[in-house]
Amino acid sequence: MALLEVNNLDVRFALRQGDVHALRDISFSLERGERLGIVGESGAGKSVAAFSLLNLIAKPGFIAGGTVTFDGQVLNRMSERGLRKVRGNRVSMIFQDPMMTLNPVLSIGEQMVECLKAHRRISSKEARAIALDKLQQVQIPSPETRLDQYPHELSGGMRQRIIIAIALLLDPDIIIADEPTTALDVTIQAEIMALLLDLCEQHNVGLILITHDLGVVSQVTQRMLVMYAGRVIEQGPTREIINDPQHPYTQGLINALPQMATPGEKLNQIRGSMPSLSNLPSGCAFHPRCDFINRADGQPRPACTQQVPEFVESGNCRVACHMVAELLEDRRLKEVTS
Amino acid sequence: MSAHAEAITDSHNPTPRQNEESADSLLQIRDLKKRFSLSGDFLDQLRFKGGKLVRHQEHVHAINGVNLDIKRGEALCVVGESGCGKSTVARTVMGLLTPTEGEIRYDGSRIDNLSSRQLLPYRKRMQMIFQNPYASLNPRMTIQQTLEEPLRLHHPDWKRPQILDKVEEVMRSVGIDPDWGKRFGHEFSGGQRQRIAIARALAVDPEFIVADEPISALDVSIQAQVLNLLMEAQQERNLTYLFITHDLAVVEHFGTRVAVMYLGTVCEIATTATLFDKPRHPYTQALLSAIPRLKDDRPQHIRLTGEVPTPVNLPSGCVFHGRCPHANARCKQEIPVLQTQDDGTRVACHAVEEGRL
Amino acid sequence: MSMTPNSTASAPPSRWARLRDSYMWHSFKRDYTAQLCLAVFICMVIAAFASPLLAPTNPYDLSQIDIMSSELPPFWIDGADDRFALGTDAQGRDLWSIVLYGTRVSLLIGFGAVILQALLGVTFGLMAGYLGGRVDTLLMRLADIQLSFSTLMVAIVVGALVKATMGSAFYSQYAVMMLILIIGLAEWPQYARTVRASVLAEKNKEYVDAARVMGLRSKRIMFRHVLPNTMSPIFVISTVQIANAIISEAALSFLGLGMPETHPSLGSLIKSGFDYIQSGSWWITLIPGAVLVVLVLSINLLGDWLRDVMNPRLYKG
Asked: Which terms does the record give in the GO molecular function aspect (chain B) (predicted)?
């Protein structure tokens, strides 16, 4: 059994217009030391997914069905007390905004020591030694002085390093990173991502990386999920999805990147925009934006507009699209003819 | 601080090449400097030091002597990381900020010292697109009102049907259904809002557009739509762009020429193809290598050390020397000046000049 | 998460539909306190302004007053007179009529003063916030000075000055105007500060830059672009300020600095009955007192509700 298993997770938000389905039928698993990317645009539900793993979604959101199993324990049926033993200890989180985790009125050292002592029976001195060691691991210059500094005295990149150090404090099994580098500059982002990758490999820590940046996912993760409108629409090994995406949305997303087009030419855009979760189109949620929906006679395929697609196994990947087989066949034909 | 004085004198003698360029350029920026005071008003600046009352002022040096020429019909991209002064350049060009020193010339005449009334004719010729489509539309105005406002201001003689026609035309040209005019900005998605913001800029038929990170707040699939729209508009209306961004991948696709900025100075200007083919400045090289590419498995980027210095206390010499792998003693003391290479690229780097790189 | 309404439907919703779908309406429908308070407040306003129709007697008309029927108790106490449901005051005026008329005076002064405060405060606050620099410093110091005088002191000084120069007959004749002026002048800094704070937040938003880039004049940007976006805090403090103004007026009248006995407000009614509490005629003070409390309480509770609705941090989630 995998370290983390998510089965048919279903999350809703109770709003005044009625329940909004934020996540539908999410299933995936993570082995020890594996790195998984969750990719999607804003509104796809990727952050909700991250939060619901540790049962952290705030009201009006709630888990309406499915299970999150970590090391044999079902997290979403655990007591708050039991969950606290998992959160921060065996599974830690990194947020986009470091100030969400850092307390502005406590020094870095105090926060790290407090975190350690909350989960382990050790003296302050020992805790400080561990904290120092972790700061060295994240390659912060002059770590001893950092321990006595306050968050506002540090730059954005430095804060995010501290956050990674805090995430590593209790030698977790999994780190969930929600857009950890989005707020940072490109050069700093590259440094932080490289650091996170190195540390995860060194300590055999699993990583769930939530991001909108396909470039980052392709460089860091081994497997990935692509989300659209609260659903996973494609999952499989990262390389295969990046090199040979099968769902029309994933194809569109990758082809829309400026690096995929000839300079000066039009970019390959996906028309329209992500539907709001409270007003999803019928059938496949992507069908109004899909380029392949029309049959030869120009009419849309009834399956796409009426039926929610099931997952289809296609090679090592699973794709939620009615037309995977046809699309694959088309491409084979093209390859043969060319 | 003596090194800075040197740089000022250097930049006061424009090289002959700059004068050559001025002939066909629409916008010229000369020795532009912008400082922001951090010290509040006069009373806040007074401090006791050694028993004496001293006036103490601190400044953010946002731009330190920037020279740029934007040619008619091109898209000049200014790239850099946060705090490098790229947005300050854009806002100073648009007259939202007044420069501390330097000149801005539009079509041959100075515009940086004009009053807002004198600027009015230029407002019709140059427009701006902002970063955040969630903040750039007035939440209390309908789309129709938002788009009518610039037309009423700049064409006081137009009759109502003429204005309505123009609004409809400009809405169609950005792909927004004119029937949505009675709706408010918050009823649209981010991409649609950015289209409306573009429509507002295009409504007065400008010839020059400053776009300050116009796509960085948008999703990937929407970014492509908006970039395509901007490129279409450029072709149809023969627009000139000053395009501010932090994303080099976008620049490669969009820009005619690229200026790379670091801490308030331009460190390299080149045509897009040259810059991506052969980056000269060590910072440009690091920036290029940091773009997460889809096809390579492992990040092979140049690891920079150290942090970006604050623009409050600028480092002496080359602003990049603290993070540069090629820095030597000269870099720490002397400010490098932009120098033209044989292929027309202009680089401000001692290492390039000395042939060490 | 994006929960924006679907913008692909073609017909834009009407104003009424927007209101019906708004968070404000939704919250109002579920908040019974707010509904009750609004009902009470509206009833009181209607009753007060329809007082010439509702009141059995006109208390301003001396010919209708009979001193013989003074200090009659309300109907639930023995010795009540059928003609006077709530009894009479020391001058023999029907308490029901005089309370109606008094509420009207109080509301008039409350609204008038708040309109004056808002006019002054919003204009100054907008200018201080948007123009900044010296204008800001000057106006805000002026506000500080104004706030360091209490309403009472302003009232005493202005009252004394007017009475000394124009005579007290003139003062009583224009007492409503005078009180509006005094309370309006004394409290404008509340508005100015609130407006300035929200202008400072709004003016850095990009739509203001966009308006500047368009070439609009400062005046138009201030009133057409910035002001409509600072309306929520203005509405919220307006409710509090109306309640405050009514209380200020009552306090001034109670101290004899406000409305004269002949045209009493709720405050002067409380004052005039105060001397008779000891002699057993407690209703002359307590009935207008209760009306004042209910009026102010309902306004304040409405204000609380409005603040909760308009504070976006509480419902963004």
From this structure: ATP binding; ATP hydrolysis activity
